[in-house]
């Protein structure tokens, strides 16, 4: 299961890992960034409080940028998204953080480097959030009529035309993202496209738009909250490749469930 930052220290995660050695916790790159950005040794100790006891059951994903550029036709599938031999690294980190070496100048400098990298990555995500959020009102107007928007807000059943608009918007976003990352979207068949991280993220953006409409299309005043929503969305996308998504955030869970259902509908 993909693990959200909100569940990294939870008893649920500990019980999940303890129940069977076949149970694996999948950690995306932003799980680490969220910890490192706090810039404290205590934050890292808390981060390792559960996973440090189960190093062989931890799967660490490659960076989002690497995964976005992957060829979806590769036969090794999701294993290509994963880093290898992370258990020794997690063991070593836990050993250092729980011992006297955590105050070593070399260790502290290494941590500062990680903290700086996290800040750069999160700043990039912040800018991306601004670009997407400013287009939400325009997207909703282009995709849905006033009647359809009322249906979305009141929980009405989606029409075939609404589904067509949702998937059509996702394909447009996917083509723009794919081109930006060096992929050739028009040369891929439908099966390969739906396997790509960028298509699932594009569909997730449309799912996020539906959530925004459902809550009344509020004016955006806290861009940092939107950035966090998009980080949660990336976790939800990763969850669609595995057996689930463990999160304490109801909005993130809603996005994951609806994204999973949308992908299932595309495969019918």
Descriptive report:
- The chain is mainly alpha-helical and 268 residues long.
- It has one domain.
- Helices cover 63% and strands 4% of the residues.
- The chain has helices at 11-19, 29-36, 41-51, 64-68, 87-97, 105-133, 136-143, 146-154, 160-180, 190-195, 197-214, 223-239, 250-267, and strands spanning 2-3, 25-27, 58-60, 245-246.
- The radius of gyration is 20 Å and the shape is globular.
- The two termini are 24 Å apart.
Task: Tell me briefly what this model is.
The protein has 268 residues and is mostly helical. It contains 13 helices and 4 strands. It is globular and about 65 Å long.
| Unreliable spans | none
Order of helices and strands: EHEHHEHHHHHHHHHEH
Round the mean pLDDT to the nearest integer and report it: 83
* Proportion of strand residues: under 5%
Number of helices: 13
Residues in helices, as a percent range: 55-70%
Indicate the radius of gyration in whole angstroms: 20 Å
Secondary-structure class: mainly alpha
* Cα end-to-end separation: 24 Å
What strand order characterises the main sheet?
1-4
3D shape: globular
What is the count of distinct domains? 1
The main pleated sheet reads as:
2 strands, parallel
Number of strands: 4
Helices and strands, with pairings:
Layout: E1 2-3, H1 11-19, E2 25-27, H2 29-36, H3 41-51, E3 58-60, H4 64-68, H5 87-97, H6 105-133, H7 136-143, H8 146-154, H9 160-180, H10 190-195, H11 197-214, H12 223-239, E4 245-246, H13 250-267
Parallel strand pairs: 1-4, 2-3
Helix pairs in contact: 2-6, 3-5, 6-12, 9-11, 11-12, 11-13, 12-13
């Amino acid at each position: 299961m993909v693990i959200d930052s909100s569940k990294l220290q939870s008893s649920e995660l500990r019980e999940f890992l303890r129940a069977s050695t076949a149970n694996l916790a999948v950690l995306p790159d932003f799980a680490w960034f969220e910890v490192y950005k706090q810039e404290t040794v205590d934050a890292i100790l808390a981060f390792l409080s559960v996973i440090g006891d189960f190093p062989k059951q931890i799967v660490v994903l490659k960076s989002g940028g690497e995964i976005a550029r992957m060829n979806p036709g590769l036969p090794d599938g999701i294993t290509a998204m994963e880093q290898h031999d992370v258990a020794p690294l997690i063991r070593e980190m836990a050993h250092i953080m729980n011992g006297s070496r955590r105050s070593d100048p070399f260790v502290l400098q290494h941590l500062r480097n990680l903290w700086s990298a996290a800040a750069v990555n999160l700043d990039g995500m912040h800018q991306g959030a601004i670009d997407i959020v400013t287009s939400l009102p325009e997207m909703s107007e282009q995709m849905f009529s006033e009647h359809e928007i009322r249906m979305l807000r009141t929980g009405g059943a989606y029409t075939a035309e609404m589904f067509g608009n949702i998937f059509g918007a996702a394909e447009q976003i996917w083509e723009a993202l794919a081109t930006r990352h060096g992929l050739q979207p028009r040369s891929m068949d439908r099966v390969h496209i739906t396997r790509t991280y960028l298509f699932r993220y594009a569909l997730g953006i449309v799912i996020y738009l539906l959530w925004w409409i459902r809550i009344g299309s509020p004016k955006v005043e806290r861009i940092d909250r939107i950035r966090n929503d998009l980080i949660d969305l990336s976790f939800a996308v990763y969850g669609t490749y595995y057996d689930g998504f463990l999160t304490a955030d109801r909005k993130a869970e809603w996005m994951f469930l609806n994204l999973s259902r949308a992908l299932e509908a595309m495969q019918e």
